Amino acid sequence: MFLTTSSLHRLTIFLLAVGLSAVSVTAPAQTLAPVNPSGIQSLRVKAVEAKIERREIQEKAKQDEAREQAAKRHFFLPLLHAKSDEVETFYNTSNWLAPLQQIKFLYGFGQGSKSLSVDLASMQFPIGVQTSFGSSVTAPGTKGVADKTTDSATQALERLKAGGDFYVRTAYPLIAIGSSDKANMFTVFSISTLGLNISGFGDEATITESTEHNFNTGIEAYGQYGAIGGKGFVYANYKGGLQTVQTDFARSVGLAHKNFGMSQLAAGIQFGGFMRVGFQRFFGPPAAFGITRGELSKWHLVLQIMPLKK
Fold it and tell me: Measured on CA atoms in the order 203, 207, 213, 218, is the torsion positive or negative?
């Protein structure tokens, strides 16, 4: 019996198919490696850490960009079209609401008067305005303390210097020039302060024996220059403006008008990026308060705690 060529081809394909089937049947089955739960958990932790690190890098890059944009802005009305994060960077905050932005202690040489004021909270608005809410406590000095339950004219002036038992202050930058790291700068702000003196607050009545309000508006120029090997700076500022009091208050302290000029000059040094030591001097109508110009213009010691740079 003879096989044709086509038959041989078919037989060859059949034998090859049978051989491959035998090999696949007899070959040992491959087993999967056991899963290591701790390894999977470790990979998950690394993934989360990498995600957090990327987020921190992005946030830092965002802050750096805001600083660069702030530095590039025109010196006149620098926050006119600023974004929210640029406004927060300008005011050295990390949020639109920032607590305890300033603690300030004033001691008046000669008179011995003392006052402590605290900015309890500040809000930074996208339009570039900063509004601060604060409170102050004033202790009487050696002048005019015969009646210890009612303000003297000198004590009333000290309350005005401190801003009032409670106050609301708004600030808006008109001019800002400086380096990106804020070591050197010069700024001019429009400042307005509404003060409230509550009769009986701190067990002492106001000079009018009623709740008083006062308003001050003006311009504040501030400059600082890096010193102490980059660990601090020297600063100086001048604030001048119009002070408005109630008619009853003006009459009680002998003022001819309820509107008068009130200004101040200060200079000092800041250490470690958060603590200031300096001197401050006020200027105004001394005769209206029953004191001499020398008594009004005596220097005050200033101790101030500021927030750290962000």
Answer: negative
